[in-house]
Amino acid sequence: MEQLPVGEWVRQLNGIEKGKFTVENVLGYCQARGVEAGTLEPFLHWDPCCYTRNLIFKCELFEVIAICWQIGQLSRIHNHRGQNCWMSVPIGKLKVQNFRVEVTDRAKQVCHMVPTDTYVMDALHPAAVNPVEPVHQVLNLPEYNERAVSLHIYSYPYDSCEVYSADKGTYMDVPLYYTSEYGKLSAALKSS
Fold first, then answer.
1. Nearest-CA neighbor of 170 among 76, 80, 75, 84?
2. d(CA 154, CA 53)
3. How many other CB atoms are there within 10 angstroms of residue 112's CB atom?
């Protein structure tokens, strides 16, 4: 796998024509080209309480976000609003647990879901979210015993998602925020 500085990796990704920005083509790009971990440093911000979302690049077609995971941190079960997503992990490794949502009642915001497959991502094993079964959870398991950074490509960018509670059988809309944008902490975080 070719290793590129993050700026060059984004530049080449941005060179993929809109009509060819498909699940297969972008996954192939991520499988052929990784990011030199050291070049991500200006974009990485860590929080002991929860993972952080750090915007690296955004255009009309896609955005690239670096998510920083402390040991043991995990995402809530969520979807991507029908948008495509690709993930690579230049630092550490992460587990992905997929879910199939079998029943939803939008009026009551209740659902029934079942866990399906899992896989592990690391520097050599990027992945694409399955558009047919897009609900998933990302975990930096305690037994991995190291921080992780994942790069997420979302096409198209979106600013909210549905978050699911498998235990309660409910789901709700949740707004999304950036911890940092282009290496600088977001304004709301600077003032807190």
1. 76
2. 13
3. 12
Distance in angstroms (rounded) separating the CA atoms of residues 104 and 113? 9
C-alpha distance across the termini of the chain, in Å: 41
Has this prediction a pTM greater than 0.90? yes
The residue among 33, 1, 42 whose CA lies nearest residue 14 is 33
- The predicted-structure confidence for 126-160, as pLDDT tens digits, reads as follows 999 998 889 999 999 999 999 999 999 999 999 99
pLDDT tens digits along 103-120: 888 888 899 999 999 999
Run of H or E residues at 152: strand 148-155
For residue 139, the enclosing domain spans 2-178
Contacts (Cβ under 8 Å, ≥6 apart) of 28: none
We report the CATH number of the domain holding residue 123 as 2.60.120.10
Cα–Cα distance for residue pair 163/186, rounded to 1 Å:
23
Single-letter amino acid code for the residue at 69: W
On whether residue 108 sits in a domain, the answer given is: yes
